[in-house]
Specification:
alpha+beta, six-stranded mixed sheet, about 25% helix, about 30% strand
Length: about 400
């Protein structure tokens, strides 16, 4: 058996000091030192073998964080792991306590092609950190070779225009990672946020909808529609890459900040449809009579086709297994929900007799989260505004 862990970590605006990443937002040297220390400590606490990072502005800063985590880990090993002179140094408990450094060669950073470097208008990228290295150079998906056109049809059947996506708001990172003798395709993503998109007149300093002193509820609602449409289109781009891998028979794991819950449309685009228990009761797509329904063998074929490309949330597997009622990775406006996910292909589903392995446990580090709703909760201005999630996996022999 081979055990490994895979985690998703939205670090919240990781950039060096005295750099304006968003309008009037930057870190003083003291604030940056605090953030670097907290992020490295969190990475050390996770001690995950594969980590997908979101909101990375500078590769050098992330490398400093990894190096600091390795330094903390080395100090911890000196304290908690007995040397070879002790008869009990090989006991399993010390393998659990021990930290394995990442080193410098297992990190790949995908910069955001929308990032011009202009102060106050920066755009973050992604990264994957792997103790196992990479089976081949990771692939960055952002500028689409062929734009995605989503046509709309009116209720009267007429053509009602189309939405065209030429690039995603942030990169999608695809990495093939060797774990023992098995190579797993890992995707890391950060989909468009729920913040509204408001077109701006080039002759104006800001979009009209951004002026809250002249609040425009319908204009802001339209901005939410634009953001949602972009997020769902990006989810489709990711889904296409996932299905390509699954059709090659490759095990897949997908992680990141989806900016939506597990049952949101965008998330379900990524994970795929949930198959019906029985398609035999359904009218056929080409039914000519009231009893024209799918045959039993057709039902079996449909079930297989849908399930073969279906992903399952590791959080959902955990709550089913543990009977826990919720996990949350964000807290905003008094609402606690999970918008960070790790999805697994059926190669790791417990109901699949031919699975390659199992998820044994699911961790979430969210004690640092608060939105001010609970007076007793700590407020860490420079910590991440996301909880970190980690799936504990075990491959079969």
């Amino acid at each position: 058996m081979t055990e490994f862990t895979i985690a998703s970590f939205n670090v919240k605006n990781l950039i060096g000091p005295d750099q304006e990443y968003y309008t009037y937002q930057s870190y003083t040297p003291e604030e940056y030192a605090w953030k670097e220390d907290w992020t490295a400590s969190q990475l050390f606490s996770m001690d995950a073998d594969i980590v997908g990072f979101q909101e990375i502005f500078e590769e050098s800063v992330l490398r400093d964080v990894v190096a600091e985590a390795d330094r903390i880990g080395a100090e911890s090993n000196e304290v908690v792991i007995p040397d070879k002179s002790k008869r009990y140094h090989r006991k399993a408990i010390f393998r659990k306590l021990g930290y394995t450094p990442y080193g410098e060669n297992g990190l790949f950073v995908a910069a955001n092609i929308n990032d011009t470097g202009a102060p106050g208008q920066r755009r973050p990228g992604l990264a994957i950190l792997s103790r196992f290295g990479f089976a081949e150079p990771p692939e960055v998906i952002q500028e689409l070779e062929v734009p995605i056109e989503i046509p709309f049809q009116g209720l009267d059947g007429d053509h009602s225009g189309a939405f065209v996506l030429r690039r995603t708001s942030r990169p999608i990172l695809k990495a093939r990672i060797p774990v023992r003798d098995q190579v797993i395709t890992v995707f890391n993503c950060h989909l468009k946020s729920k913040l509204g998109e408001f077109p701006r007149n080039p002759n104006a300093d800001f979009a009209a909808e951004a002026d809250l002193t002249n609040y425009d509820p319908m204009g802001r609602a339209m901005g939410a529609i634009r953001a949602s449409l972009r997020r769902m289109a990006e989810a489709w781009v990711l889904r296409r890459a996932i299905v390509e891998e699954l059709n090659l028979g490759r095990p897949v794991m997908v992680m990141g900040d989806f900016n939506d819950g597990e049952h949101a449309v965008s998330s379900e685009i990524i994970s795929g449809e949930v198959p019906f228990r029985n398609y035999s009761w359904m009218l056929r797509h080409n039914a000519k009579h009231a009893n024209d329904r799918y045959k039993r063998e057709e039902n079996d074929a449909i079930q297989e086709a849908v399930t073969a490309v279906k992903l399952t949330s590791s959080e959902a597997l955990f709550t089913r297994k543990s009977l826990r009622d919720m996990v949350y990775t964000t807290a905003f406006g008094g609402v606690y929900e999970s918008i960070d996910q790790i999805y697994l292909s059926r190669h790791f589903h417990p109901d699949n007799d031919e699975r390659l392995g199992d998820m044994e446990y699911f961790s979430v580090l969210n004690d640092h989260l608060t939105d001010g709703s609970h007076a007793e909760a700590p407020y860490n201005k420079l910590a991440s505004d996301h909880g970190q999630i980690m799936a504990h996996m075990r491959l079969k022999d």
